[in-house]
Design brief:
mainly alpha; Arc Repressor Mutant, subunit A; Four Helix Bundle (Hemerythrin (Met), subunit A); two-stranded antiparallel sheet; 12 helices; about 5% strand; disordered N terminus
Length: about 260
């Protein structure tokens, strides 16, 4: 039976839980997010009624109602009087939400979502590099120099290298003083930093190449060159992602 047939008949397979979760509402929410993103419950259709969901997940109506309320907060469903709980189009989904973003990335073989994430990060970090080049004091500049030097020393240890890599970018974001932009970048990165699709290839040669980009950014900030720092950051983020990227779709969304 196909997902659309299951939906039409209000037949929903039970979740693949190995053991009953401690927080049932959160677990039911996570499972429904995945099913909506996957298309088991397509946009424009209604979720199965409460009794069916209760039976499917072996939970009470209270748990189901709490889960549906959370789905509504995430923008995935809309509760309509007399029409049931309708699944909304993807344009209404909260893409900064951990569950929504994670499920969308998992289902997107073209990597278009990760391309958009990189584009968003590129825009914000380029602007923050511009501001950092104007505002950075000697302590910040020395901190960036030390991080670049340290990354050169640990290119054989990709795990440690990426820890310093994130610290380098975060120091620039902090130097810009833009807490909102930094918060958005950190929220996005936290959802993907440990995923194979985002990290891609991580061998030594890529770390070496990546740190050349970091050094160019550091040099432009140290020279108090805002436009140069922004351009170096833009190029670095773009090139680093294109090297790691291994999806089937074209990275045309990154072109400017």
């Amino acid at each position: 039976m196909t997902p659309s047939q299951e939906t039409a008949l209000n037949v929903v397979p039970p979740p693949a839980w190995t053991r009953r979760p401690a927080n049932l509402a959160r677990a039911v929410t996570a499972e429904l997010v995945e099913r909506i993103v996957r298309g088991t419950h397509p946009s424009g259709t209604s979720l199965p009624p409460e009794p069916v969901l209760c039976e499917t997940f072996s939970v009470s109506r209270t748990v189901v109602r709490e889960a549906v309320k959370i789905l509504q907060e995430k923008g995935l469903v809309q509760v309509r009087q007399g029409a049931g709980t309708m699944v909304t189009p993807p344009s209404s989904w909260d893409m900064l939400d951990e569950l929504v973003l994670g499920a969308t990335i998992a289902e997107d073989d073209s990597l278009a979502i990760l391309d958009d994430l990189v584009v968003t990060r590129r825009v914000l970090e380029s602007d923050m590099a511009n501001v950092a080049a104007r505002l950075a004091d000697e302590e910040t500049i020395e901190g960036l120099r030390a991080l670049v030097q340290r990354m050169d020393e640990v290119v054989d240890d990709t795990v440690t290298y990426h820890e310093y890599d994130r610290a380098f970018h975060d120091k620039i974001m902090q130097a810009s003083g833009n807490r909102i932009a930094r918060g958005v970048v950190r929220a996005l990165e936290s959802q993907v930093v440990n995923t194979a699709r985002y990290m891609g290839r991580t061998e030594r040669s890529l770390c070496v190449a990546s740190n050349r980009g970091h050094r160019r950014i550091y040099e432009r900030i140290a020279a108090h060159d805002p436009e140069g720092a922004a351009s170096a950051m833009f190029t670095h983020i773009t090139e680093a992602w294109l090297v790691r990227r291994s999806g089937t779709g074209s990275p045309s969304r990154l072109q400017r």
